[in-house]
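Aim 2, interim progress: modelling of the EPU-bound target.
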Amino acid sequence: MMGAKNDALKAFYSSLLFSSPITVKNTPLIEDIFRTQELLEDIGVKVTKSSGRVFKLDAGTIKKSFLKKSLVESMRASILLVGPMLLRKKNVSFVHPGGCVIGKRPIDIFLDGWGKMGAKITLSRGIYRLHTALLHGCDFTFPIVSMTGTESLMMTAVLAKGRTILRNAALEPEIPHLAKFLNEGGATIYGAGTPTITIEGSAGRPLKGGIFTTMPDRIEAGSFAVFAATRGGKLTIKNCNPEHLSVLLKALEDCGAQIKTGKNWMIVSRLAKLRAIDILKTREYPGFPTDLQAPFVVLLTQAEGTSLVFETVFEGRLNYVEDLNRMGAHITTCDSHRVLINGPTPLFARRVESPDIRAGLAFVIAAAIADGESLIENVYQIDRGYERIDKRLKALGVDIRRENS
Ligand code: EPU
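Predicted structure of the complex, ligand included:
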């Protein structure tokens, strides 16, 4: 598997916290990384790609405090630049971050956190402006668990003055990985990967640059696992950490797949028919990942019986099911968070458009098992998170080609 998008991106944004260049290895060559590179270069960060997947980021000079609108609107992760900018420039302006169309995606929690750390915040004509003389530590409780919220306030707290305690923090494995990298550079972060994170701020003293090796992408590994179980047969997935996917793997077994795992590999095979699952509920890590909900729904269209899928993290992440119904699925929408899937139903080729990275990938899986030739549009969304997905699926026997747009 490739390096994780949601790991490498955070390392890129953290470059502003360092007084010397940082090196990011095993970087996935995906569109969100390229847009992040453009966003960082626009404010003055020197980004150089040496060999293959190794990027060097030198944030010695930051020349602007306005984040480029088109890039912020293309990617939610851009919000991770705000805290480090505030520390470096004392002020930052930006529009509401865009990205995947999967729900409202407000930034109220981030703003609340920066406000508690001493930032003055205004919103006028769609532009947020934050400024501060000095950011100070605070005791902050997340009202709901937020991955980038946790990462963002953790990064901001590292150079703030005094102690910050983050309560009800997110638990995704990318968070302790980021904390370890920051600590190696001189930060003092305890408890990352638990619900309470304590950061002793350095009062502006920057970190010393080091090397970040991106961890394997658990969502990509999970996507291939769901693909294998949906199509049937056997697939070996290397360079992954099955421990990060235990709830997904349990769900696959419950549906009739066989799973074998080692330290950094897994084999997914499915010879018998798929079975429905009573209820599949997405949850924050370590629960069933919302990012694998759409691919799993495609699998459930092929399972015998009725399954209930309950998306608890995002309120707009089931909109794609209408397109699966056009392909022949029998999915009933109960409300914006719940669908009932009756299977198995054969799928038929259709023309569909990717609404976001993960539903786009789900359409690719659906098209791979559908009868006939499907056309998937807006594959930019898929390329944001999956590197060369067409070539890699072709190598697995899927009849897939990229059309020139
Ligand atoms: N939320 C708020 N207010 C905020 C922030 C979040 O209400 O200020 C809500 C969200 O609307 C959502 C819930 O909190 O209902 C949890 O969202 P979270 O903040 O955890 O999501 P995120 O940090 O924006 C990251 C990943 C997503 C992944 C989610 C959940 C990155 C760049 N993005 O998003 O990844 O789905 O965590 O695990 O790390 C993807 O890779 O395709 C993707 C969407």
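The CA atoms of residues 53 and 214 lie 10 Å apart. The first strand starts at residue 22 and ends at 25.
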